Amino acid sequence: MNPESFGPYILTWVTFAPLAGALCLTVLPRRDRDIRIISLIFSLLTFGLSLHLPVYFRHETSAFHYEISRQWISSPNIHYHMGVDGISLWLVVLTTFLTPLCVLISWKSVHDRVKEFFILLLILESALIGVFTSLDLFLFYFFWEATLIPMALLIGVFGHERRIYAAVKFFMYTMIASVFMLAAILWLYAHTGTFDFVEIRNQIAHVPGFPAAAQWLFLGFFLAFAVKVPLFPFHTWLPDAHVEAPTAGSVLLAGVLLKMGTYGMLRFNLGLFPDQSRQNAPWIMILALIGIVYGALVAMVQPNMKKLIAYSSVSHLGFVVLGIFSFTQLGLNGAVFVMLAHGVSTGALFMLAGILHERRHTYEITEFGGLASPMPVYAASYLFIVLASVGLPLLNGFIGEFLVLSGAFQARAIYGIIGATGVIWSACYLLWMYQRVFYGKVTRPVNNSLTDLLAFEKAAVWPCAVAALVMGVAPILWLNAIDPAVQAVLTPFVQMASKVVGQ
Amino acid sequence: MTTILLAQAIPQGVDYVRILPELVLSLFGIVIMLLDPFVDEEKSQKTLGLIGFAGTIAGLASTWYMAQSPGPAFSKMVRVDSFSVFFHFLVIAIAAVVILTSFEYMAVQRIRAGEYYALILFGVVGMGLMSSAVELVLIFIALEISSISTYILAGFRRQEAASSESSLKYFLLGSFATAFFLYGVAMLFGATGSTNIDVISRTLQAGPAEVLVYVAIALMFVGLGFKVAAAPFHIWTPDVYEGAPAPVVGFMSTAPKAAAFAVLLRVVFAINAPGRFWLVWVAAALSMTLGNISALVQTNVKRLLAYSSIAHAGYLLVAFAMTTPEDSSLGISAAMFYAAAYAAMNVGAFAVVSHFANAGERYVTLEDYEGLGRTSPLLAATLTIFLLSLIGIPITGGFFAKFYVFSAALKANLIWLTLIGVVNSAIGAYYYLRIIVMMYMREARREVPVTPVPFGLGLALALSLVATLYLGIAPNRVLQYAQQSARGLLPQPAATAPASAAQVEPAANIPRH
Question: Does A368 lie at the interface with B, CB-CB under 8 angstroms?
């Protein structure tokens, strides 16, 4: 079906299809099997709908596509304004791609309060897509907060032993950081009279009082995003949340939720405050570098597999921030690509860790060893994903990290050099973990009888592996759309640079 | 000249229309009092309650009728404008919902007293009058009518010592605070020679204010600050709320507060009270901070919501810190919207609490809520929405309420106050979240009976839920109405004042949509 037949509503359909599924589930009787099937259908439907976006995307323009803008509330002046560019487009597709896999991976592992689980999962998907498609700051903030509740409930209700602590910590960290963004958004509204991202971007420089407030506004937005990413000193909620979350929660948390932070930096910090981004870039890049190295080093000594993957996220997201604040075409392209690649491969790693937890109810690495012989298919899939995550050429991790590091080199060589060590570290901790878990003799007799991947688990993990391969071989399919969007983001920075040269 | 004055002094038919809701509500209250001895004691509860509910419905209808003829009445002691109509609707609607929640509560607690419903109606009469009176002495009388009803209502759990304590504390401290208000009125009269708000406003506009005026404003602020439970006049709140019957707490944390805020709005903005800025600033910052921080450590849900109501009074007070006319207009409408949104979510939350408390209000601690998400999913989901609204999560009324207040404050460049406010709303999230955590993430450790929700309570919950979500999804109409009221409330620039106000208002009353 051609998107024309949806009129301007294609983004609305994609955003709210999961919510419709969730509403559908609320009225369904509590027959677990039906509920699983219905949620799978709705998440696949959403994925199918979202594929319209890249297929009919016109690469030649950098403007927002599939835009829709209707007045929602006249006072304050809030619009239902949605649209995607090459950056948010792929993040939407990443979300819709991961959700059906989350449904599959939770097929057997969730057996209590199944209905609530899938309702929350679908609501979360809607909210996540909304974050990436909104072009109205109010709408954005609404979806941003809306992700918080289903995610906190997923962790707190369906998680492991210390789930309540983790859920509350997650909620409070993000909530406290978000109110600063809210204050900044309110300031922008009070002084421009609009929430529309495009309008604010166009008139912000002429707003009286803006130069004095700009640094604070920048920090207001940045703090909310930095906690979400999470950037180095704000990362402490992440390992707790990941370790306690159910598998599907971890997949969406690492795969998509963290990208809300980096996406926000890219869209709002760079888009609205180019001067302040430039001024603050040095310390932000240093924090990103600390995150890369520190995350990797801490990951290396983790005895808990899930915690290890969680800290590897801190390290990988450091790359994204490094790329964003390099203000180079390469660096930004790379940052967006790392977001997608990390979503696919870390999502898959969490699924694999969850599969093991299903069988042994533990994440401790020392509990395993020699798993390659009882679970050959599992071991092979795991290796593939680990290699993708490490950054083996021809798999997805490599492209993004390479681009980011090239960008960082252009910005300042030492950043590139320190960042590059992160690639080595990631090889160390992931391969070492892989070796301890899979190679050698089976150390514990109980592991001898572990079943290999089941059909539905294969259906959840293998699409990620395929995506990792395709992204690694033909990154141009993605970069085609990303590149013009990144160029548009960078326009004020290029002008700034030429002004400096002109003087 | 004398004949004209005399003609003004004699009440006309339209004068009575302009206090019609008060008349209707008093009538229903008196009918309940008269019927009480005659009806059967077992059934009296339900019958009298239904009469009370019918009274509120009639009150709403008569408010609508009253709204058709705006203007002053009774020698300019009362003024019907969209501002007073707004607060009439609000307090009567709160009373209606509270009466609905009381049916079950009274039966479960075995309280047989028809005068309960009469007292609610009489209280509403006072509150309605508070919002339409423009004469300080009448405001004082209305304040007393409303307060005395609530003092008695607080003591309705007669078997419980806590309830009597609550009633007595409220009465003693409340009378003390009202005296402050009265003292302020007297001083303002001394300084300006009038107790009519319009005359006072004109006198104050004419020249620089004396010291006496500042003292008067401060004293009146103390009295009203007590009524709205703003810090540092908030100490009574937790004890009184803990002891009073749960539906009554739902009532007195919203309706008398809304009415007191209406008076405060008139006093602060219509008089354009001088020297109010720091009073309001300090009270707002203190209320938000003390309310939220104290709520963090509460284990009794009623006490927790009491501290939360102090915090919310603080958020609302932020809207009073505006000084220029444009900012003030934003502040007034934000405060009105906040009062409405807070009423919807808080009455709803207390309806759940009063249903859940069971006989003797046994189940009111946080631990009792453990596992409610499993034993009673619908009730838990409803309470969750009210709590999310109290946190201020989007698409609930609570979000827009905070939103309007803080954006008005930012417009007025009150950056520090706004920051204190937003940080506080993040802190506040924690204790509301604790209740949600209890309901959904913990398993019940002891048996807490959950009785099915009866029709009256169900209706009350549905109404508050609809109101909370309506204000969160389509806040436009209510806000526009509040904005029109705000324009009418502010002192007009001297020359064009009376004529233009009279012409603009009736037309503007009808929200165009």
Answer: no
